[in-house]
């Protein structure tokens, strides 16, 4: 039989057959005088076996190992590994569906925020940052946006976890909102406003030592990054100066 007939019997495409030839999974028979390759029952059986293994989720490299192992030892180990992977995927899917259910419920109640599709830990922190009074503060909203942004940075998960653990302190949240409102008051102020330096010192002092310890190695060069430039450009000159001075203060050993 020719390649098209072989592929049809095994339920694969001729392109897949040629790919298996290239990967060394399916031996390529010699061409006959008419220039066509002739496939027999052996190739049909082998191709069907390849299809079954790939449908189970084995990679082509794993299929090659299984086909080379007549005793099936490699296949057993690979299948056990696949089963473990599927179990992890099932757990992840259940967790994602639970999160989706909560988001759908909030959406149906008209209470869904654009930043709500974050990790549960970050969602808890955003819940604290969204306490009454924060919605009317532009700087508080900016902080919320930055926290949501951190959720996408794998190297900042430790910072987020620490912030979440400390966020339950209602007194600290009230103090943070007071600082945000004072920053809001600088929206039209010049860079040299006498309120800038004292507010920068208070802002730096308000950052918990646990958080400072986690970001200490990032602070010295943090003002020179493109992200810092974009963030500082998003606020007024006086507000940007407060943030610059606060970061410089945090960079010095306490």
Automatic annotation (TrEMBL):
CDD domains registered for this protein in UniProt: HTH_MerR-like
SMART domains on file: HTH_MERR
Superkingdom to which the source organism belongs: Bacteria
A Pfam short name: MerR_1
DNA-binding in keyword set: yes
Statement: the UniProt record of this protein carries the keyword DNA-binding: yes
Residues covered by the HTH merR-type domain: 1-69
Alphabetically ordered keywords of this record: DNA-binding
InterPro entries the record matches: DNA-bd_dom_put_sf, MerR-type_HTH_dom, MerR_fam
The protein, known as: MerR family transcriptional regulator
Source organism: Amycolatopsis minnesotensis
Lineage: Bacteria, Bacillati, Actinomycetota, Actinomycetes, Pseudonocardiales
